[in-house]
Design brief:
- The chain is of the alpha/beta class and about 240 residues long.
- It has one domain: Rossmann fold, CATH 3.40.50.300.
- The chain is built from nine helices and five strands.
- A five-stranded parallel beta sheet has the order 2-3-1-4-5, with helices on both faces.
- Helix 1 packs across helix 9.
- The longest helix is centred in the C-terminal third of the chain and has 23 residues.
- It is globular.
- It starts with a strand and ends in a 5-residue tail after the last helix.
Length: about 240
């Protein structure tokens, strides 16, 4: 079953292409916003979760169940006394790169980082094991680098196109979009360096494909990813 991991520069096109790719493949689509919704819903009562067992789950509910199960067995749940990983631990998985807390100047901050990356890695691997999923961002191309059935796709674009996309998606002025892109790019670089010891998150070596969305139409880029994903799943990519 197809597994696709999309990542790339802010405004590079991953967030724009991802939902349609998932629709074409008949896959679940997972990005930061969906993780945010899951984080909120995880506050549901045990009774509510049991009620869901009595009927067929929707895609969104199946995803929620995956996250719930991961957290129940994760070291995160044993750290409820830590303000860095309390009852809203999942929220850390949903922040933009520049919103993530910086390492605290204490002896314990390395443990916090370890808990975070363990939970994130566990969730992404668990989602990948379910198959039929398109995951955007969160370092998923690196996390899934040893999963032979996961297609890893990077997206890049020219500066002006990136600004225009961020203005459209986030409803920002041009000046605010430019500021946002610079902040997110810097934070994304720090994120990859901090958690994966990677200096260049856009290195072609991390991906099966790197698509310049300024030089290709959305339709062609989507079709390219869909066909590459199906080829990989069938063992025909190489």
């Amino acid at each position: 079953m197809p597994i696709v991991s999309l990542s790339g520069l802010t405004g590079g096109g991953a967030r724009k292409l991802g939902p349609t790719i998932a629709e074409r493949l008949g896959s679940d689509y997972v990005d930061r916003l969906i993780l945010t919704r899951a984080a909120r819903k995880i506050g549901a009562t045990v009774e509510a979760l049991h009620d869901r067992e009595e009927r067929i789950l929707t895609h969104g509910e199946r995803f929620l169940r995956v996250v719930q199960n991961v957290l129940e067995r994760s070291a995160v749940t044993s750290a409820s006394g830590d303000p860095y990983f309390g009852s809203s631990a999942v929220s850390l998985l949903t922040e933009e790169f520049e919103e993530l807390p910086q390492p605290r100047i204490t002896q314990g901050h390395e443990l916090d980082d370890s808990l975070y990356i363990t939970a994130l890695t566990d969730i992404i691997h668990t989602l990948a094991k379910t198959g039929n999923v398109v995951i955007v961002g969160r370092g998923s191309p690196y996390i899934l680098k040893d999963v032979p059935t996961a297609l890893r796709v990077g997206t890049i674009a020219e500066w002006d196109d990136r600004v225009e996309r961020v203005m459209e998606i986030d409803q920002l002025t041009k000046k605010d979009a430019e500021r946002t892109i610079k902040a997110r790019d810097n934070a994304r670089g720090d994120y990859y360096k901090r958690y994966f010891n990677i200096n260049d998150p856009d290195s072609p070596s991390l991906y099966h494909l790197v698509i310049n969305t300024s030089a290709t139409s959305n339709e062609y880029a989507i079709e390219l990813v869909v066909q590459a994903s199906l080829a990989l799943a069938a063992g025909r990519l190489k």
